[in-house]
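I hope you will forgive my troubling you with a question about protein structure. I am sending you one protein, given as its amino acid sequence and as whole-number tokens for its backbone shapes. Thank you for your consideration; the sequence and its tokens are set out here:
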Amino acid sequence: MKKRLGAFDLDAMFEAPPGVIALFGRSGSGKTSVINAVAGLLRPDAGRVEIGGALLYDKAARVDVPVHRRRIGYVFQDARLFPHISVAKNLAYGGDHDRDRVIDMLGLPDLLDRRPVALSGGERQRVAIGRALMSHPRLLLMDEPLSALDAERKAEILPWLERLRDEAGLPILYVSHAASEVARLATTVVVMEAGAVKRVGAVSEVLSDPAAVGMIGAQEAGAVVYARIAGLDRIDGLTELALSGGRIVLPGRLGGLGTHLRLRISAQDVILSRERPVGLSALNILSAEVTALDEGPEGVAVGLRCGHDRLLARVTRRSARALRLEPGLQLWAIVKASAVAPQDVGGAA
């Protein structure tokens, strides 16, 4: 689709499979404009919008399905609930499709008689999501639904969003500029920059690509890996995780034995060594192979293959030269157990 918005040109085109499709990029990259066009709130100058075979907009064919007939649920940054009525009545305003299932899936039974003013920010967003789902949408749009929440409220709602992803059975177009949210929730990532789509792919591929670091931002760069809980250390309070390329430990209880997780490991928290290190306190040492290098203004992004997973490291140019990094090089990746933050650990889709 194409749209001229003052001095800003939106020219975005992508196709994505079902699941959570994250529109990811810096503020002002055009993410919200895309979902507004999908919702019918913004009319493109050219292009088409199609969801699951249903054509909603086609400039050339003169197709423009009205907003109220597109069957799209929209969850905004703020919950936009009616303050003078109960949660139950707010939900009913969206409809009554799958009412009991939606209420159970989002953990709302104990909130039904309360009014929005008595809810936390995370609870209000769960109600807003429930209201959107009860309209029986073919697609759910979520425009930075966690941006107005503090860290504690984000931690409260993220598991519910994971459950929504896994159980709702409908595609979700999710706007965010936070890498930790995208890493936990997305199945597909669409990276946007200056109104254009720069990269589309599976979350584990896009976030681990050294060439994408410049678009994502050096501080936000990090890879997604998948793990299974293989052990619980009651003495140190550590959880042992089995990855395809080895085992690591993280602090805290992350679930029961056999639980599958996905982790975001920040590129700046991965240290590289040509020799297996000895005499270190670090517990997480993985064998890895360099797959790609990308030099940018803030150093060198290093793509790594570790078993079937991909990691990403960020080193200085001096370190890259000293290590003589090149594709195919076998080395060791060291990850501090405390480097993976709680918000970067979630359920695997």
